[in-house]
Amino acid sequence: MSQEFLAAAPSSREILKTAHLVKGLQINVLITGERGTGKTLLAREILPNAASVDGANADEIEQLLLRSDALIIENFDQLARPDRLELEGKRIVATTARVIDPSVIDRFFGITLALLPLVQRQEDVPLLAEAFAAEARRTLMVENRLDLQNVHLDLSANAHSMRRSIYSALLLDDVGESELLALMERFLRQQLTDSQSINIYRDFLYLYDRPLIEAGLKEYGSQLKLSSILGINRNTLRKKIYELGIEH
Amino acid sequence: MSLESNIESEPLNGGNLKNWLEYDYNPFFVFGSSGEVVYLNRSAELLSGYEPVKTFSDLALSYASIDFGYKTTFMPLSFGKFSFFAITVGYEDESHIGIKLYQSPAGKEPSTAKLKSYENTNVYVLIDINIALAKSRLSQTEFKNEFDPSIPEFRLSQNDFSKVLRRAYDTFGADNSTLTTVLKLKTGEFLYVQGERYPLIEVVISGQNRDSSDDAAIESLSGGINIGTHFEAASLSLEVPMVT
Lengths: 248, 244
Hints:
Chain A contains 11 helices and 5 strands; from the N terminus they run H-E-H-E-H-E-E-H-E-H-H-H-H-H-H-H. Chain A is an alpha/beta fold. Chain A folds into 3 domains: 10-116, 3-Layer(aba) Sandwich (Rossmann fold), CATH 3.40.50.300; 122-173; 177-244, Arc Repressor Mutant, subunit A (Orthogonal Bundle), CATH 1.10.10. A 5-stranded antiparallel β-sheet of chain B has the order 4-3-7-6-5. In chain B, strand 13 and strand 14 (235-241) form a beta hairpin. Classes of the chains: A alpha/beta, B alpha+beta. The interface between A and B is medium-sized, with 18 and 21 residues.
């Protein structure tokens, strides 16, 4: 897992700069942003050595505050009674993906840092993709380098979904014929037991046809050329493209 | 005999009555027949930094008693950080008129121990951070800084002062084309706490338009850490004691 907050987009760089300035000050910071925008990593940039605790664990927060001067509280919105928090002489950095009552913010936090979703920080995407790809290679113990240009990066849940896209792409890249056959067998076995159909062979033929035609169209472009390469009639190919709903 | 010489001729336990006026917490002005200032005490001198003295000569003429004598009128008045609940206007001849303004009681007096418990702070860093955050919100606004570079580190509640700055910048919306932050030493003005005197610095943030609905909250938050506030339609200023 990437352990530092990576910033290339202007807004991210500005926030990271601010986080480093705040590091040396006795200021409580609230970091807001959707899931997967890097809130916890940013909190670590400010308090690298502090313990981290979830807002839902009010008792643990109380105990930790007795023992230490600084604390990271994740999911601060989950804290049931923020008014009971005693921060005299203590310092917290809190994160939240949800909206917090402004009076609570005003009571505790000298500064709020708002992290934008990754779709609004496009310059950060290649930097994060490289970091996740390196991490995935280490975790999955594979050697091949992923061509990130051709990977569809799902940013719907920010870095979380993006990381999943990269792991999937790397796994797919590493699949050979035997893994593919084993995977197909496993999938079809499940389908055979679940299916009520009496035409199973034809029902699942798309699993072969569709990737073959899609790969062929990407490779050769024209249906005419592809039909001759595949050795099937041009009209048959056109019909299959239509039936399979392949966009061309 | 002029009003001034009248005061000086009155002894009080061997002292001088004029000093009682001079050091009065309440501002006191004496104007001549054409509205010129004949005398003003220290508190009035401070007040005149916030409001032209003509305001007070006009006020004196408007609220003077019909005939020679003294008249007290209760009314709320506020000029800058000063607020008053009553005035007394007096005149004994045609050539002089005096006005005394009664200051509304201020909040609790801070303790020196509390002021000294705050963290030693580089005030430029705190302001820079809050300007950076305001910039991220107001991407179309040009930010200008005029900072006196000679302000040393001093003791300040960093978290609370940052709250004040954040809310101060939040009063300026995207309709401001420029936002200027001035940081300077306030010469000749001090915060007196338990016999100690602290110089003041002033942070003035000015733009073209400002939402004043949060001013009371900012004033209250600032008061909690002994910071004075002064609000205008398009600017606000914070007076911060330099506790060392």
